[in-house]
């Protein structure tokens, strides 16, 4: 009996000195009893660890840099909607770009690397602006080319002769052959190479392959020129308010001023007359 009394007293003393008083029922059910005190502010969680019981804090420190998943999802959705809006806006803008005429003839382009596969790369001054405002059309005053093989040979020979004579590249931005195909020379992003033509930084120079002083080019060449102008506007490389010009030889105006090439171009929209050349 004395031993039982000592056990009860020890148990009571332990409860008095412990902030948490455990009961058999609470242990079995997983709850705890908290003896409130001035120094205890955080409730303790009863957990079982390898057959022993320990206390664990219920409160966790909040991370100030942690982003809530809902907020993150809303931000991602907003960015997606903004991107879709930009794409739709650009598409609608392209639809509103005025085309100079309905084009039934498709645009055919042979890029420079397809006809000039030599180590000397194109080195030409770049245009300062994305969309230029002028197109100058002139003939090459050479033999015609009615198929791609002959047109490619003409471009290669012209490139070689220009490089041998002046250490410079073919001066045209583009050439249009009698096969109804556009051949890239200096392209949309480089200045033309004609020192006697104005507006090197605002102009695309297009050469019609052949001699058209006394006769007009084939209809397919005119159709391809229209397709080229439309494609240049579509690529935002030519202003929709562009100006179309012909080139007049200042030393021989009677020869180049009235060549058959311009008899049809003078009736086209955006025609603004002739520009003078100093060289034949």
UniProtKB/TrEMBL annotation:
This chain's protein is named Peptidoglycan recognition protein family domain-containing protein
Domain Peptidoglycan recognition protein family stretches: 107-249
Annotated TM spans:
70-94
Biological process terms from the Gene Ontology for this record are: innate immune response; peptidoglycan catabolic process
Family of this protein? Belongs to the N-acetylmuramoyl-L-alanine amidase 2 family.
Q: Which UniProt keywords apply?
A: Immunity, Innate immunity, Membrane, Transmembrane, Transmembrane helix
Q: What does the record give under GO molecular function?
A: N-acetylmuramoyl-L-alanine amidase activity; zinc ion binding
Question: What PANTHER family is this protein classified in?
Answer: PEPTIDOGLYCAN RECOGNITION PROTEIN, PEPTIDOGLYCAN-RECOGNITION PROTEIN LD
Source domain of life is Eukaryota
What InterPro entries does this protein map onto? Amidase/PGRP_sf (IPR036505), Amidase_domain (IPR002502), PGRP (IPR015510), PGRP_domain_met/bac (IPR006619)
Keyword Transmembrane among UniProt keywords: yes
């Amino acid at each position: 009996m004395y031993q039982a009394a000592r056990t009860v007293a020890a148990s009571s003393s332990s409860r008095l000195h412990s902030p948490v008083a455990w009961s058999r029922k609470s242990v079995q059910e997983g709850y705890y009893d908290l003896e409130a005190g001035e120094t205890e502010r955080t409730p303790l969680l009863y957990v079982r660890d390898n057959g022993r019981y320990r206390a664990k804090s219920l409160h966790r420190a909040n991370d100030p840099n942690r982003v809530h998943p809902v907020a993150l999802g809303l931000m991602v959705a907003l960015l997606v909607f903004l991107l879709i809006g930009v794409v739709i806006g650009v598409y609608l803008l392209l639809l509103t770009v005025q085309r100079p005429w309905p084009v039934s003839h498709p645009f055919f382009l042979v890029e420079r690397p397809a006809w000039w596969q030599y180590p000397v790369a194109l080195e030409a001054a770049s245009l300062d602006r994305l969309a230029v405002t002028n197109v100058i059309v002139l003939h090459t005053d050479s033999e015609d080319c009615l198929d791609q093989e002959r047109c490619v040979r003409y471009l290669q020979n012209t490139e070689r002769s220009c490089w041998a004579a002046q250490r410079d590249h073919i001066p045209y931005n583009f050439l249009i052959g009698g096969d109804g195909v556009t051949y890239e020379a200096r392209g949309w992003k480089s200045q033309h190479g004609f020192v006697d033509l104005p507006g090197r930084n605002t102009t695309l120079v297009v050469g019609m392959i052949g001699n058209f002083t006394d006769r007009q080019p084939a209809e397919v060449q005119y159709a391809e020129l229209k397709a080229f102008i439309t494609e240049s506007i579509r690529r935002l490389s030519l202003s929709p308010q562009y100006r179309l010009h012909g080139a007049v030889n200042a030393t021989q105006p009677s020869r180049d001023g009235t060549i058959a090439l311009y008899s049809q171009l003078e009736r086209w929209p955006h025609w603004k007359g002739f520009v003078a050349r100093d060289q034949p």
